[in-house]
Amino acid sequence: MIIRVDSLTFRYPTGTTALDGVSFQVAAGERVAIVGANGAGKSTLARHLVGIERPASGTIEIDGRRTDGLGIAELARTVGFVFQNPDDQLHAASVVKEVGFGPRNLRFPPARRAELVESALRLTGLTQWRDTHPHHLSLGVRKRVALASVLAMDTPVVVLDEPTTGQDHASVVLLGNLVDGLAADGRTVLTVTHDMDFCVEHFDRVIVLAGGRIAWDGPVAHWPAYVADAADGSLELPQMTRLGHRLGWERPVTTVTGFLDRLSPGPGPAPVPSTSP
């Protein structure tokens, strides 16, 4: 078990309760999407995992250690956090310096630091911009710089806050491949997202937050049924599921692959050659 959240409650100084008794566990290597309407508490929950916010009550354990006794710098060795807005994260004068900042602060040996930086640049498609100032790049590319800076820290847990916002299709595909690759390496990935298609394509489990509480927690394959039955309409079904409904399919599909498989004809007799001249 790598993450354990128990009865987590958080209130803002205004008195607004953002999280109200949230409890869940995440095993090593899981891919978990946290979804819900605006104001449900998703980003607040994510910020607790890296110590940016601290609970009013309840506890968080990461890798067997309670976070209330750990500073942000110490938690950064275990949890890498990619902000929704990259401009809240980026500060260095070049992409390569930005990506190298984390591993340098963690005091990795120079050889390992160089290897991690080059790997992160390559995986995020940023090698061509290594010497460019991050703020001279587009929003989508800046988000990739923020992601690369976290990947270079080689943390066992990676938390992504709305990673697909402002990204074009190619960048979303790249991001999905990265999530799949992190999971294949045994790393734990959590994302806060409104992108339902990204969620069903690349995550194993969904936690639905509503009003600061967990409304549903289960495998991604069962999640569309929950959305279809939800009365408030705050969540949207994946595109392929909606298209399947329009086509009259009773059994839902969620992914593009599943949709194409449903369209493919099953095995049958070989076609009879034509005898016409």
Task: Summarize the topology.
Elements: E1 3-11, E2 17-26, E3 31-35, H1 42-49, E4 57-62, E5 65-66, H2 72-75, E6 79-82, H3 95-105, H4 110-123, H5 139-151, E7 157-161, H6 169-184, E8 188-192, H7 196-202, E9 205-210, E10 213-219, H8 223-229, H9 239-246, H10 256-263
Helix pairs in contact: 3-4, 3-5, 4-5
Question: Keyphrases for this structure?
Answer:
277 residues; disordered C terminus; 10 helices; globular; transport; 2 domains; alpha/beta; single chain; four-stranded antiparallel β-sheet; Rossmann fold; 35% helix; 21% strand
The CATH superfamily of the largest domain bears the name P-loop containing nucleotide triphosphate hydrolases
E-strand count: 10
CATH topology of the largest domain: Rossmann fold
| Rounded mean pLDDT score | 86
Oligomer: single chain
User: Topology as H/E string?
Assistant: EEEHEEHEHHHEHEHEEHHH
CATH architecture of the largest domain: 3-Layer(aba) Sandwich
Taking pLDDT < 50 over at least 5 consecutive residues as the criterion, the unreliable ranges are: 268-277
**Proportion of strand residues:** 15-25%
Main sheet makeup: 6 strands, mixed
**Class of the largest domain, according to the CATH hierarchy?**
Alpha Beta
Question: Taking strands numbered 1, 2, ... along the chain, how are they ordered across the largest sheet?
Answer: 6-7-8-3-9-10
Rg, nearest Å: 21 Å
Separation of the first and last Cα atoms: 70 Å
Helix content: 25-40%
Shape: globular
Structural class call reads alpha/beta
Q: Total number of helical segments? A: 10
Structural domain count: 2
